[in-house]
Amino acid sequence: MAATASSYSITMRLYTAPDHGVVGAVATQIAACGGVVTAIDVTESRHDRLVVDVTCSASDAGHSEELVAAVAGVEGVTVHKVSDRTFLLHLGGKISVNSKVPLRTRDDLSMAYTPGVGRVSMAIHDNPEDVRKLTIKGNSVAVVTDGSAVLGLGNIGPGAAMPVMEGKAALFKRFADIDAWPICLATQDTDEIVKAVEMIAPGFGGINLEDIAAPRCFEIERRLRESLDIPVFHDDQHGTAIVVLAALTNALRCVEKSLESVRIVVSGAGAAGTAIVTLLLAAGAADVVVVDRFGALSADDDSLSPAHVELAAATNPRRATGSLQEVLVDADVFVGVSAPGILDPEWIPTMADKPVVFALANPDPEVDPAQAGKYAAVVASGRSDYPNQINNVLAFPGVFRGLLDAGAEDVTVDMLLRAAKAIADTVSAEELHPAFIIPSVFHPDVTKRVAAAISGKEG
């Protein structure tokens, strides 16, 4: 096994014999078991023992346990305790609230709170539009979930979803200086979710729906957009679609093909797949076939669900039928937002010349990116340990920054198209390469370019 992800990084505190050669033996044993040593610190040296902290990365949780067992087997070594660095990072949560104003004196309190705050409240009562200027509303987003479709983990509930929503709030702050709050609802009833969000909406400038299962997420977003005067954005749908379109725009530049002329196969007819297809069509794609676990969606199929009927009607102009393997033949592009391992790399050579493969299922993609790279001209995935990571962080901070700056009340398809173009254009002609079709999430210009595109204030 190969250690590739810091999310499975552990620190072992070891008691060893007073021989620094033991430290080398530990490092050798970890490497022999496929781990990667990232730090070794001798924290205490005595005549009878050494205390050593060894930090290493593994490929998964099971691999971490194997590394610990291997180190424990080194002669002269006792594993005193093991700390999982990811869990340590989450202790006490990842976000906090800090006051933006000093509260040191009675004078400070009289302005920030009573009696001075009453004047501000009445000013908002008399001029409701001032709430964006005089409160945090103008820079705040609610990150709302019911815990029904969390990452690749499924329906794990609102409590278990909290670390993900906290992380989303931290990303809002880091990349767009937006104050976001995790709102994890103890219901999966559509009416109750809509009502709950409507009731908290006065305190926020935007609503980010997150990790809500399809098809419920479609109705929730539609109803909230109709009832609220602030933008509602389901990131699993539209954030993914924006980044996929941006990456595909540049991938097609690499292979010298146009969006209008290529055949595209999308695996996955859920929230992300539906939004990706919708945005691709809006951008000019003419031949898109959607495949679910039963095969290609076609308007000729009377057995489709209501959500899939609409999707089939807008796609598959050739009325292609069959399995994923069958519809991939002569396709130029594969976009997967479905399930691990469903694309055999041996199918890729049956695609058109210079195929593009986006395997975006997380944490395990539809096809191993390294294997896909043997046959495809351009490969992208959702993983950070391979080139061309399709990451929603490229989109949603800038999208909401632009929406809040513009005081927008809605999100339009034209905004999404402009955001995708802004991300794609961040990669210069000199930088563009099959292994570099999308900028890093840490690129200093991404968020501000997307924000300007959303607000219409470019240049």
From TrEMBL:
Residues 11-85 form the ACT domain. It comes from the Bacteria. Gene3D superfamilies: Malic enzyme, N-terminal domain (3.40.50.10380), NAD(P)-binding Rossmann-like Domain (3.40.50.720). Keywords: Metal-binding, Oxidoreductase. InterPro entries: ACT_dom (IPR002912), Aminoacid_DH-like_N_sf (IPR046346), Malate_Decarboxylase (IPR051674), Malic_N_dom (IPR012301), Malic_N_dom_sf (IPR037062), Malic_NAD-bd (IPR012302), Malic_NAD-bd_bact_type (IPR045213), Malic_OxRdtase (IPR001891). It holds the Pfam family Malic_M. SUPFAM superfamilies: Aminoacid dehydrogenase-like, N-terminal domain (SSF53223), NAD(P)-binding Rossmann-fold domains (SSF51735). Belongs to the malic enzymes family. This is NAD-dependent malic enzyme.
